[in-house]
Amino acid sequence: MRIQEAGLLFTVTETEEAIHEGLSWRAEARAESTVQIRGGFLADLPSFGKTVTTIALIQSKFETLSPEEIIENNQSVAEQFEEYNVCVIRDFAELKHLTIDGVQQSRVIIVSWTVLSDDEYISELAWATAMPEPASSSCRAFHAWMDGVGKDLPSQVLLLQSMDLVDFTQATQRILEGRLQQPEFQATLPLRLQHGSNYQSYQTVRSGQKKSVKHKPPTKRKSSGLNGKVVPLLHMFRFNRLVVDEYHHYLNDYKKIKNMLTAVSVKKVAAHKRWILSGTPALANFTDIDNIASFLGVRLGRFAVQSSKLTPLEEFLVNDQTAVERFLTKTEVMSQAWRRARHDQAQEFLDKFVRQNEASLGHIPCHEELRAVDLDVAHHAVYLELSQHLNSQRMQVKRLKNKGDSDRVSRLNASLNNSKTAEYALLKAALLYGTSAGESGLDSLVQKRLDQRAETEREILRLMRAFEWHKRNGFKGLNPIDPKKADKEENTVPKLWASFTQDIKKHTWLGDYDATTNTKLLLSKAEAKPTPGGLEELKEALRRR
């Protein structure tokens, strides 16, 4: 890694070809450029110490760009090895509280990727460079905007160093107002494509806009720096070493334009040496390798569709093309020699700049052994509860509706969450079961069930007493709609209640002796002391029927 930081030369080749089909002749024009790359790609497997290896490489200021989920890990590892002045920036709010001197004095800066694509960060970057804010709907437009920022930012930093903040703000506003009068910042595209008689030329549309549209003067924008201080935007600095940790984290979902804008912003941070860390890099084709090289500041060649089956990255790049570019891509057929040359160049890049250290694990004996694990009673009860539910559902993962706020339904849904299969849900239930501190899992479960049983018995007794009260009053208000058919109607409330009480008293209708005995006891209490109420619930039940 130290040798690569000294700088390795790499020749980038771009080839254009022409083929005479009749003679089977092929002519090509080749342009070559030699670039020096300081850094590379460390592709050690996960948990094999990429962060530790990188920290060992640190000799001066060092910035790490990381996904938000692993910022704390990088900070703790860095502080273990040396008394670094570690600066952690999780979001733009934390960046606003820093100063330029504070950033310069930090030995290690750990930044979340999302900071560099935050709307406030981009707005502040536009203000600092006297540029209009970019469109966020196109990755290529944002890339071009960042190129313009990169050209103007050094002169703006020199301007900031030579004057106070008030003068800098006024000078920046004048530059912005002048740029807004330039033709390239006033370009307008039609909202819809018109064909035939509806077609209008660009000059016609433009002249119409000049007559009907009154442009508002640009509003003056105030810096978001605190107490008159400029926010220390990371693009203002040139770092000695930049490390992009888990670069693929924000490139897994190419459909999210915000992720791609984040990647573009990361690539535009200036650094003398650049490193990429990832244990699972995408290496499917030339496009993936070219994407890796772009993080090191070099492009291996132009984008060209190589096959009918596109990778997610290629699909995004195709969708980001104009209609004319997509048309030319379909008409352009490159030869096998041209594709082989690109493949060889990508392989040369991998050989020079990508490394994956092999762990020395041969001396560690490894063997498989299956051991039975006995679950405690409470854990086993919860596992059986989930197993019975899944068996009743024919091992289909279906979430339950928790209308009554039942702990059983909540626990089952918690086990089923993020489980693609029933077997995986059972495995999670067998591996983990947590209880509150200081209490037994079994005691907690038993007490909860006893409370639920008592609550259910109280509710059943209340309804039984209401039925008995309405029975003694002739079930007024619950008669059938047609009184003439009362004797023939089998589903009237009086007959249903009479059948229910008869089944409870004479038969084990519930299928369980204990449940039937308890129900008989509740019915006896209801007959001994009926109470009014429950009429509205009975009417609602009949209406639902």
TrEMBL record:
Region described as Disordered: spans on this chain: 202-226
Protein keywords: ATP-binding, Hydrolase, Nucleotide-binding
Domain of life: Eukaryota
Gene3D superfamilies linked to this entry: P-loop containing nucleotide triphosphate hydrolases
Listed InterPro entries: P-loop_NTPase, SNF2_N, SNF2_RAD54_helicase_TF
Residue ranges of domain SNF2 N-terminal in the record: 21-389
Any Pfam family the entry gives: SNF2-rel_dom
Gene Ontology terms describing biological process: DNA repair
GO cellular component, one term: nucleus
Sequence ranges of Basic residues compositional bias: 208-223
GO molecular function, one term: ATP-dependent activity, acting on DNA
UniProt name for this protein: SNF2 N-terminal domain-containing protein
Lineage: Eukaryota, Fungi, Dikarya, Ascomycota, Pezizomycotina
